[in-house]
Amino acid sequence: MGSVQRSAPDVGLGLWKIDRSDTAAMVRDAIEIGYRHIDSACDYGNEIEAGRGIADALTAGHCSREDLWITSKLWNTFHARDHVAEGAKKTLADLGLEYLDLYLIHFPIAQPYVPIETRYPPEWFFDPDAQEPKMELAKVPLHETWEAMEALVDQGLVRQIGVCNYNAALMHDLMSYARIKPAMLQIESHPYLTQEPLLRVAQGYGIPVTAFSPLGALSYVSSRKERLAEHLAHQVLSLSEDEMTAISSLNQNRRFNDPGVFCEAAFNRFHPIYD
Q1: Per the domain annotation, does 180 fall within a domain?
Q2: Is residue 175 in some structural domain?
């Protein structure tokens, strides 16, 4: 695009599990106290409300659009080449934005297309009204999805692109064909799931990593305004090598967000993506 690529702020507000009725105020408050990174997704179901919060903060003069870093994610049902741009444009319309700073493939899972007018967010069931609804898969290779993501950058709809929930093998595969290098790998990471080999792979490719659920399951409910201020203040926290080693020793390879578990339990299909 001919401009210098920005980097995502170190600390961001993730909108997963924030109730729609609370989202606009939460986003506005976060920006007011200094957050500049907002992490959203189609599947969270609250991007319209997030857009209202962003608009309120901009109107109040808390910052400019250029000061913000807005991330969103392509849902599984929009993986096909013909539907990637549709998913991105719907997110942009809901957020009230002209571009995204970062757009991520949410899961390395392709599911059958669900038209926006039929159901949005599409969620995991292809037909939730079926007699025995289940998660279904679509034959869309990840390289096709990535090429369509690259086209979004070419069109100026998004500034940078990346991936979520990829493992090391998928990262190696992606780097073998990517015309535009992924700008971010977003993964679950916390003291019980340190994922050190995957972090080394990303570091080897020069790809930054964003950790979601950094407090484990507690991350899902830690969204009060006073907590937001505390988290923002912690970005200046510095840990010694011994302290980092002690934290790493807590690793249990414990995932709180594992499709191999929740897909079978909630969507009637066993579909692990991690070994």
Answers
A1: yes
A2: yes
In total, how many domains does the chain have? Answer: 1
The residues assigned a catalytic role are: 44
Region class of 66: left (phi > 0), else alpha (psi between -120 and 50), else beta: alpha
The 10 Å CB-count burial string (b at 16+, else e) for 196-211 is eebbebbeeeebebbb
Please tell me the distance from the alpha carbon of residue 153 to that of residue 171, in angstroms, as a whole number. Answer: 20
In angstroms, what CA-CA distances link 213 with 38, 96, 218? 14, 26, 8
d(CA 106, CA 208) in angstroms, rounded, equals: 16
Predicted TM-score (pTM) of this structure: 0.92
Interhelix angle 196-205/168-177, rounded to 10 degrees, is 10
Q: Domain of 232?
A: 13-267
Instruction: Please check whether residue 62 lies inside any domain of the structure.
Output: yes
143 is a domain residue: yes
Q: How many helices and strands, by DSSP H and E, does the chain display?
A: 9, 7
Buried b (16+ CB within 10 A) or exposed e, 235-250: eeeeeeeeeeeeeeee
Backbone angles phi, psi at 99, to 5 degrees: -155, 160
Which CATH number is 38's domain given?
3.20.20.100
Please give the helix or strand (H or E) that residue 220 lies within, else none: none
One digit per residue, pLDDT tens: the chain, 275 residues? 444 578 899 889 999 999 999 999 999 999 999 999 999 999 999 999 999 999 999 999 999 999 999 999 999 999 999 999 999 999 999 999 999 999 999 999 999 999 999 999 999 999 999 999 999 999 999 999 999 999 999 999 999 999 999 999 999 999 999 999 999 999 999 999 999 999 999 999 999 999 987 766 655 558 666 778 877 776 656 767 787 778 778 888 899 999 999 999 999 999 999 98
Taking every pair of Cα atoms in the chain, the longest distance, rounded to a whole number of angstroms, is 56
